[in-house]
Amino acid sequence: HELEQLYVHESVENVIPPAAFVEAFDDLPIPAELVGDGREYDSTDAVATYVPRPEYLDAGWVHCIRAGYDEFDTDAYEREGVPLTNSSGIHGSTVSEVALNCMLSLARLGHRYRDHQKEREWWEPPYERPFTLENERVCVVGLGTIGEATATRCDALGMEVVGVRRSDEPVPGVSEIFSPDRLHDAIEDARFVVLTVPHTPATDDMLSDAEFAAMREDAYVINVARGPVVDEDALVEALEADAIAGAGLDVFETEPLPEESPLWGFDDVIVFPHKGSATNRYHLDIAELVAENVERYRSGEDLKNRVA
Ligand code: NAD
């Protein structure tokens, strides 16, 4: 369990300031260094990175600074016996607040007033349009760190919270749990469907034509998970046909969302530029997790958040 060096790959700059991240390791028992591509690794090296690279399979341990590690070839890590860890467990409040921000806005119309504010216009919405989250039903699909945090917050706002999860273990604030094969039952009465699952073969296009048809016409989709969990063409069609009322989206099939995407143009679609986890101390939250695993690795303990 020798570990002599922590390498931070420059791709972390996608989400955090690399220098501040490296600095957060000042108290580590091993040195941390910022690196680019074209380096060789050996079993005494740890790598913290945003992107996967084939050469990381020669390292002793690799940490993906994202929660979603779907771009990493987990089979190859298992074959090579190189542990891969991710950053789930730290996105509860950050990402759920983005989900709540979208839900509150879609209900209370903050996004619409802001649109009109640009024209200095005192806009009056139709009487029927604003509503409260209180007493509305929300279905949270995937009750992990983000899903649970979302459910707790929705419960605190007086919503009726149901969820989709593979085990039927109770979750605080969630009144009913549906298994994934009962997705349609879970979503058909919901005013909000919030996606907080990882992107896997089982969740790919989880919401598509049939699901949008099953949903209420006044329902909103909130996707803070991964773009491909929603069939984006089907979503656009459902929005155009008024089969659902709107969406709050932090993630997309293609990111950045292409300029020509119809999703930019709907009054009741809120586009976040994949900023669910963005806060001014995100680098410290990730560093804390990595530092804990450095300790564990060196003392031969199981790594936290091991995904391969
Ligand atoms: P997590 O591992 O704590 O939770 C995921 C949950 O989904 C688990 O409880 C798991 O059992 C459940 N799940 C998996 N497959 C399922 C299925 N088919 N049906 C129902 N439930 C299923 O992870 P997390 O930290 O809560 O993050 C969840 C996902 O959110 C990540 O995988 C990532 O893709 C995404 N994410 C997005 C952002 C963002 O910026 N928008 C930030 C962090 C994470």
Describe the model.
- This protein has 308 residues and is α/β, with parallel strands linked by helices.
- The chain contains 9 helices and 12 strands.
- The protein has helices spanning 18-23, 74-80, 92-108, 110-117, 145-156, 183-187, 209-214, 232-240, 282-298, and strands at residues 5-9, 32-35, 45-49, 61-64, 84-85, 137-141, 160-164, 176-178, 192-195, 220-223, 246-249, 269-271.
- The chain has a 7-stranded parallel β-sheet with strand order 8-7-6-9-10-11-12. The chain has a 5-stranded parallel β-sheet with strand order 2-1-3-4-5.
- It binds nicotinamide-adenine-dinucleotide.
- Residues 67-68, 88, 91, 95, 142-147, 164-166, 180, 196-200, 202-203, 224-226, 250-251, 274, 276-277 line the site of nicotinamide-adenine-dinucleotide (NAD).
